[in-house]
Structure formats: C-alpha cells, structure tokens
C-alpha cells in the first residue's frame, strides 16, 4: 500500500509540475516586412506597459506604445523606415531594456541598445562585404606624453597582409562620451571603407580610431565600475588639447613604425565628429605640418566662447591659425552638419569666419541632427575625396 500511495503521489506531482511549465513561445524581433515596415515584439506577460524608442525618432523622449497580445507578447509595427542602421530600446515603467529576442547589442559609451540593419540602396555601404572585408585590430600602445598604456582600433583594407604596398592613413576621431570602438561599432567605419574600396570609390587606406579622452586608457574605462583616481571615468577633456599632442607625439609614430604606411603629410588625413570635430580643428591650427586633409563633422566655432577662450579671443585665435594653415597649404578642408544639429549655429559661425578670411573649404549641409546616421553618411562622402 505504501508503494502504491507513493506512486500515486509521485504521479500527481509530475502532472502538477508538467502543467506548471510555461508554454514555449517563439518570438521574432525585429521582423521585417515590405516598404520599410518593421515589427518589434517582446515576451513580457507580467508587464503592465511596454513602450519603444528608436534612433529614427528625433526626440529622445518620444516613445510609442506596444499592444499586449496572446501569451503575453507585446508588439508594435513601425512603418516606412528608410534603409539604415538603427538602434532601439524598450521601456516598461521607465525601466529601459534591450530586446531579449535580438542578439545584436550595440554599446554607445555607457549605454547599450539593440540594433538592426534595414537593407536597401541608402544603406548599401553598411552591409558586410564578405568578399572584400578588411581587418580590425585592437592594439595597445604606450603614450609617453599621457603616461598611459592606451588602446586603439586599426582598420587595414582587404589584401593588406599580402600586398606589400604602403598605404595612406585616415585618423578618425569620435565624439564626447565615445571611445576607440565608437566608429567601428556605431559608425560602421570598417564596413563603409570595405564597400567604398571594393567599388573603386575610395583609395585603399588604413584607418586609425583612437580613444579621444586623454584621461582614459580604453573603452574599459568608459563603463561603470572601472573608475579610479588616476582615471575617473568619462570627463570631457577636449579643451586641454592633450589628446591632440598625444596623437601627434605617440599615435602617429607608433602607426608608422608598425604598419606599412606612407609617412608623409600628403598621405595623412584626420576627421572627427562633435568633440572629434573640435580636435580636428585644433590639429589643423596647431599641427598644420602633419595632415593634408581635414574633415570636421557637427562642430564649429561657438559664439559664446569655449574651453577657456573668451569669444573674441577664440575668433581671433581661429583667424590667425587659418592664415597660417592657408599659407602652408592643404588639399581639403571639409565641413558637414545637419540643420537640426544642436551645434548647427556654431558651424554657421565657423563658415562665416572661414568665408570672411578667404579660407578654401567645402561645406556640406544636410538634413538631420547630432546623430550617427549623419556621421556614417558623412564618412561615406568624405573618404572618397581622400588621397586622389
């Protein structure tokens, strides 16, 4: 009887345990449809609300509501997205989260987002080029000027390992809050160069992506939990011009010792966005003998003064340095900004100063704001102008 009773209890337990198991539900997110429509879904049966924010929305505070369906799956379809590379997040009761059903996670400084590529003509440069891919290397190097061991990301074009050739170099600078991985993870610089070079639209080149924060060794120190007295985490130090000195004194010599490059001014370019645009200007004005091509994205001359300069002092300093750069000569000084960028006024001001000083430059004005979709576009337009 005891054996029979135990068997009955065991069977009842197994039935109860089996019935308690949640039904297996497969969720696909994001799901792509025709005409740029994309459905986002998340399994969250106990959530009281669910909202979505995407990088295609002009306002960070803009969010759209998902609708709860069967089995606790929340969904919403966004219509008419143009082909591009996007990031997005879910919000539930103000808690921001990535999409657990999407394996592509993108880090932007201290923030993480889910991402996806919507294929099409406008995003053709962002596709993986399997037959013509270059190589990305994460390299540690000594910076005697900053007294730090630092990390950079270096792109070498397809065929570099076997070609025996020497290559020109683009030094590509990120913005405030970013680090040495920003241009490869968010800007897709390697994919853009792969496709431009494969199509014969750009010269094969090496691209050096450094950490523009002179108080950081690497992206490891751009995340929570790694701060110290020596490296207190993100601190906007772009005004002290230490990074520019370290680029000239430490980074360029390291690259020219360890990679097959053409070590001449005519084969060096520098470009940057936002903070990196300011650093590009400082490099042009204080180290004009180093570079022959300049790309300034989403940064100008601030009308109220900045970084220790009074406005009149900043303007006069800019004029003097423009004269010196003009006298030395250069191949290209290219400026780009979106009309909705919060720094658009500073770029307008810089354009006015350059025109008043008879400075030779190209200005590219676009739609859009202070966002990666603009900077990816600008890189795809700037790189083909180099080293021709």
Distance between the ends: 93 Å
Tertiary shape: globular
Looking across the biggest beta sheet, what order are the strands in? 11-12-14-13-15-16-17-18
> Averaging pLDDT over every residue, what do you get?
87
Rg calc: 25 Å
CATH superfamily of the largest domain: Alpha/Beta hydrolase fold, catalytic domain
Q: Which sheet architecture does the biggest sheet show?
A: 8 strands, mixed
Unreliably modeled segments:
1-21, 223-236
* Structure classification: alpha/beta
Number of domains: 2
CATH class of the largest domain: Alpha Beta
Secondary-structure element series: HEEEEEEEEEEEEHEHHEHEHEHEHEH
Strand tally: 18
Q: What is the overall number of helices?
A: 9
CATH topology title of the largest domain: Rossmann fold
Binned strand content? 15-25%
CATH architecture of the largest domain, by name, is 3-Layer(aba) Sandwich
